[in-house]
Amino acid sequence: MLGKVMLGLAGTTALAGAYLVQQGTVRVSLDEHRANGRHVHLLVPAALVPMGMRFVPEENLLDAARQARPFLLTIRVASGELARLPDCDLVEVQDVNKYVKITKRGGSLVIDVQSPEETVHVSFPLRLADRIAAQLESLGPSA
Amino acid sequence: MISPLEQRRMFALVAALLLASTAALVPIAAGRAAQGTQPDRWLHVRVDNQEAKGELVRINLPLSFAEKVLPTIKHDKLRNGKITVDQANGVDLRALLEAVRTTKDGEFITVQGTTGDVRVAKQGGYLLVHARENKDGSKKRVEVRVPLTVVDALLSAGNNELDLVAGLRALGSQGDTELVTVKDEKSTVRIWLDSRSTSD
Question: What are the structural domain ranges in chain A?
Answer without folding.
Answer: 24-137
